Amino acid sequence: MKIKLVRLFASTAVACLLLSWGQNLQAQTTTPPTKPTKTVNSPAAAGLLTQAYSALSAADHDYDGNRIRAMKQIEIAAKRLGVSLGGDGKVREQQVTSDQQLHTAQALLQQAVVAGLRPGPKEHIEKAIIFLNTALSLK
User: Fold this and answer.
1) Which of 75, 70, 15 is nearest to 46 (CA)?
2) pTM for this structure?
3) Residue 104 burial (10 A CB sphere; 0-12, 13-18, 19+)
4) Which helix (H) or strand (E) is 95 found in, with range?
5) What is the crossing angle of helices 66-81 and 119-137, to 10°?
């Protein structure tokens, strides 16, 4: 009986040691350090810039040059993203419709900032939003 008890105790101790050693090995395995991720532009943000630029190019009124300044900032940001923009702005429309176009562009640009832009393009889009705020405050 004593031998069976000692054998049971010894095999239980060995099993516990093996299990704890396996847990220790698992806890010590490390994953390779990850490199800091670079901010990547969202494809959705590029699409929003294109839509905003199109809305601004369709707007007929000048707003003391602020509409054009906003468009230039969007062009710079789009160029940094590798997106080509175009539009001639030769549409005749009423002031109210033109104001709606600017509001639409402003909302699209704000969505583009939230969607994720690198700091360089984001800076230009924020400037464009400021120009649009100025343009919409003129009457």
Assistant:
1) 75
2) 0.59
3) middle
4) helix 95-115
5) 160
